[in-house]
Design goal:
Helix-turn-helix domain-containing protein; 3 helices; Multidrug-efflux Transporter Regulator, Chain: A, Domain 2; 3-stranded antiparallel beta sheet; globular; alpha+beta
């Protein structure tokens, strides 16, 4: 399992960081852990699955 920061997820999904934080609040992306500063870290496999699903449903 590879963990991604909010910035890395935002870059991968080609969205702003605030959008990633919103997706987390809405439980569409679930953080696996937090770093030392309390920032969420996401499983890269789940982020890829979310991107695939979002594209099938019409985009992010």
């Amino acid at each position: 399992m590879s963990l991604m920061t909010v910035q890395e997820v935002a870059d991968f999904l080609d969205v702003q960081e605030i959008r990633v934080e919103r997706l987390q609040r809405e439980s569409l992306l679930v953080a696996k852990e937090t770093d030392g500063n309390g920032n969420p870290l996401f499983d890269s496999v789940e982020v890829e699955k979310y991107k695939t699903l979002a594209e099938r449903l019409g985009g992010l």
